[in-house]
Structures are given as structure tokens and as C-alpha cells.
Amino acid sequence: MAKDQRPAGELSIEELEALLTRKRLERRQARLDKFRQTGRAISVSPDAMPATMLTAVDDLPAAEPELAAQPAGRRRRERKVFSQALLAVEVLAVLGLTFVLLSGVGVLRTLNQEVAEALAGPTPTATPLITAVVLPSGHTPPTSPGGAAPNEAEIPANLRPLVQSLSQVPLPTPGPEQARAIFIPALWNDPAPVVQGDGWEQLKKGVGQHVGSANPGDRGNMVVSAHNDIFGELFRHLDQLKPGDEVMVSTATRQWEYRVTGVQIVEPTDVSVMGPTERPTLTLISCYPYLVDNQRIVVFAELATG
Fold first, then answer.
1. Least C-beta-crowded within 10 Å: which of 122, 134, 225, 251?
2. Among 2.30.30.240, 2.40.260.10, 2.40.10.10, 3.30.420.240, what is the CATH number of 175-303?
3. Residue 231 backbone class (left: φ over 0; alpha: ψ -120 to 50; beta: rest)
């Protein structure tokens, strides 16, 4: 094939690449000839060469015109597609690594939390307020044949074992913020003592505060009870109270003033009047009517604001 005599500046990129390929082949052939002359290379007959090698060698001169004729735009497009494919692979690899790292952080956080919970032990829960089965202060009248005694007939038969078990629960030691005395100026001349618990034995000593009810001045319902016809008849005249009357409750450190808001007669099983409230309230409970004691009188009061 005749050599191209045009200057290098007039050749296309494809033609220059074909020219460089031919030059490299010529230099390689020259080195082989030199090696054969010095005995460092042997000649291999075309019959011993693999068919693929013969085809590649035979096609080299003929491939130069094809390389020159191949469109340059197509090769650029192919390189661009290849570059975009590599970029996509890199992006996917980065996203995968990020996902693995985030997952690892989440797993580590969960593991740390589980370890902390295991070391800390079970989460403590507040002791629920024991719900009364019947309202406190229930008893038979002192004029009955057997005299005054706890009135178990008020308690449903299936719940009597529960009431008996609750009576065995030890009472807490009064704290400085718990009620120590109560005074109702409209009914008494002197304050009455307040004890913790409202069972039969506790109400012999004075006014009993229901265990678990709110302390004086605190948000919630403070529930107290006393008898109306035995053990001092402390709550005999609750039915004489009117809205606005004062009820003073003292602790070891201060005194709180409540104002009566209403009076209601209910059945012994209407324990809803002992329920918690959102505001600081006071509920006073006693048997009713006097010397009959088959119902309850309930006085409601709220903490005075000023």
C-alpha cells in the first residue's frame, strides 16, 4: 500500500491513529527480525499459528481504511455513554455506602438503648390508687340489737374477701404535707384530729383520710370521713353546711382553706364521689341519716383562691 505523503496537519484523527498503529507494527517487526538474526527468536509457520491470530494479522492493513472511515461522532458518543455508566455506578456505590452507614448508626442506637434498659432494670410504675368498693364510715346504728359494728351487708358478697384483704394493708406513716387536723367553724369550736386510713379502727381516733387521696392544697381530691352517731359524732351535722362555708385543713407546716360547694345524699356503693379531680378539692363523707345509717352524706369543697 502506497504511503500517504500528506503533511501531518492535513490528516484526520482516525488517519493519525491508523498511521501510529502501522508505525508500531513496523518497529515490532524490525525487532523480531533482529532477534531472529541473533538467534533469540524463532520463526513460526503460518500453519502453526492460531486462526484468530492469523486473522488479526491479516486484517491489520485492511483495517486502516475502516478506522479512517469510522465516524468520529459515534466514537465520542460511545465514550460519553461509557463515562455516564461509570458515573452511575459510582453514584450507586456512594448511595449504598451511605445506606449501610445510616443503618449501622440506627442498629447501634437501638443496641445501646436495649443495653441501658437491661442495666437499669424494669421501668417503675406508679402504684394505682386502691378503688373503694363502698364509701367509708359504714356501720350499723348504735340502737340496733348488736350495737354499732362494721356493716358488711353493704358490701356485695363477691367483694367481701377483697375488702377484708385491703383492711390488712399497712398504713403509711404521716408525712409533713399530709393532713394533721381539720376544723369546720360552722359546726365546731375546736379542730378534730386527722389520721391516715378510714377503716373501723382509724375512725375511732378521729377523721380519717382515704389512703392515696390528695394531700391538702395539692391538685386532686382529698377524701376524708368520720362517723355521725358514734366515736364523737364528728360529722353528725354535715347536712347543715351551705355553699361558701369554710373547712380548714392543717398540715405540720401550714393551713389550707376550702369552701363548700355542695351537699349530696348518695347510696353506699356510689364510690364515684371519691374519684380524682383536676382542681384541689376536698370531699367529706359520713353515714346518713342519723341513727339509720343506710346512706351516705357527701360534702364537696374546693380550695379557696384568695
1. 122
2. 2.40.260.10
3. left
What is the identity of the amino acid at 236? R
The three cell numbers locating residue 246: 369554710
d(CA 121, CA 118): 5
Burial class of 229 by CB neighbour count within 10 A (0 to 12, 13 to 18, 19+): buried
Report the candidate in 199, 273, 288, 281 with the shortest Cα–Cα distance to residue 237.
288
Which amino acid, residue 282? L
Checking if the pLDDT of 56 tops 50, the result is: no
Total-model pTM: 0.57
d(CA 163, CA 134): 9
**Nearest of 302, 140, 144, 154 to residue 228 by alpha carbon:** 140
C-beta separation of 76 from 84 below 8 A: no
Cβ neighbours around 13 below 10 Å, total: 11
103-136 burial code (b ≥16 CB/10 A, e <16): eeeeeeeeeeeeeeeeeeeeeeeeeeeeebbbbb
Q: How many CB atoms lie within 10 A of CB 174?
A: 15
Query: Do residues 241 and 260 lie in contact, with contact meaning Cβ atoms separated by under 8 Å?
Result: yes
CA end-to-end span of the chain: 119
- Contact present, 224 and 207 (Cβ < 8 Å): yes
Domain ranges, ordered by start, for the chain: 13-69, 175-303
303, three cell numbers? 380550695
- Helix/strand/coil for 125: coil
Cα separation, 45 vs 234, whole angstroms: 132
User: CB-based burial of residue 299 (10 Å sphere; 0-12 exposed, 13-18 middle, 19+ buried)?
Assistant: buried
Which residue carries 437491661 as its cell? Answer: 118
CB 67 within 8 Å of CB 14? yes
